[in-house]
Design brief:
- The protein is α+β, with helices and mostly antiparallel strands and about 375 residues long.
- The chain has 12 helices and 11 strands.
- A 5-stranded mixed beta sheet has the order 3-9-8-5-6. Strands 2-1-4-7 form a 4-stranded mixed beta sheet. The protein has a two-stranded antiparallel ribbon with strand order 10-11.
- Helix 8 (about 260-275) runs antiparallel to helix 11 (about 350-365).
- It starts with 5 loop residues before the first helix and ends with a helix.
Amino acid sequence: MRKLPALTAAAVLGLSLSACTTDPEPAAPGDATGPIAVKATDATCEVGRAETAAGTVTFTVSNGGAKVTEFYVYAAGDRVMGEVENIAPGLTRELKVELTAGTYETACKPGMIGKGIRNGFKVTGSAAPLTADAKLAEATANYQRYVRSQTAALLPKTEEFVAAVKAGDAAKAKALFPIARTYWERIEPVAEIFGDLDPKIDGRAEVIEEGMAFTGFHRLEQDLWEKKDISKSGPIADQLLVDVKEIVAKANAEQLSPLQLANGAKELLDEVASGKITGEEDRYSHTDLWDFAANVEGSKAAVQALRPTLEERAPELVTALDAAFAAVDTALGRHRAGDGWKLHNQLTQAELKELSDVINALAEPISKVAAVVAK
């Protein structure tokens, strides 16, 4: 996903996203095993250590630049091991990621675009995986079953959407567009693991500025709603189906870490804040609330998979999460329209502000889940 930086987009609407920050552990530069400080600016990315021991690795990322930034840990082939987005100037956010021995790259992305400022990173030794805990092993198994259930629907719905586009049936394609995307949006953090496949499927027009072709769902959305011409959209539709088939196969085969569930639950709320509330995601169709609901459902599925562990280790956090999810469901439920949702441009600024507030309130307890899982 290529995004408009959340604070920039929020400023357009006068929304507050302040609760998307976290309260990270302090990094100790001289500590060989503790949190690793990352000092990011608009031109630099200083990582406190280039090597650490296997296991749960904590990065505390401080943004000293003027642009919103994000931080990634990549394995070979730009496979995303962990990421933290929407780090506004002056703020610090934490990323916990489970790493085995091997070589990796870290990357700061000022402006949240491009390949980023990269550094080599090495992990040595061995550590018991988090899934050595029976409850966490069951959590990952349950969530992977959820991923497979969503990919089992994503593929046929994408096939229907592509068929409608190629048949020139714009009305049917428009109706299928938000439905197919629902299954994608529920598992987007898993889809984002696999390098450039995500922007090929779900990138916005701005990917051209990064040297990529504008393809996938949003290119077809533009053809359907803005250009109102799908007579030449067949090749784009065919490529979308090829890319979705590839990501479905990879997502179904992926072995996830419990921390990827925790981080993914938070990433989905970042997606809501940076793209859906602002109307940036589905700028041509204005079907953003479909994606909003799917992101929240996906976040809830990840948290529910981790629930037995959370109930055992932090029952007060479970109470807070239940209340915050219920508040989001109530606020969003006011915008139901039949079996779907109102269009983004049908909501008032006050209604969008209410949605922003409940997402911010949910983001705060969700940001604490990874630390509980890593205990």
